[in-house]
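Design a sequence for this backbone.
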């Protein structure tokens, strides 16, 4: 699955803040995601992202 900047994805596990929707901020060798609920930013490799994402969020 291809992801672009601005896409929103739902993860399999919830973030400690309770949110499970993340916005993709940067793509490339790794992906930078921002939690929509609390604003926390994380970096994931393409493999980690593939395993963590349940589906795309409806925009």
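Sequence:
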């Amino acid at each position: 699955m291809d992801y672009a900047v601005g896409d929103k994805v739902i993860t399999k596990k919830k973030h400690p803040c309770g949110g499970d929707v993340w916005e993709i901020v940067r793509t490339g060798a790794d992906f930078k995601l921002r939690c929509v609920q609390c604003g926390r930013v994380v970096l994931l490799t393409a493999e980690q992202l593939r395993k963590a994402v349940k589906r795309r969020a409806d925009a």
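The chain is about 10% helix and 40% strand.
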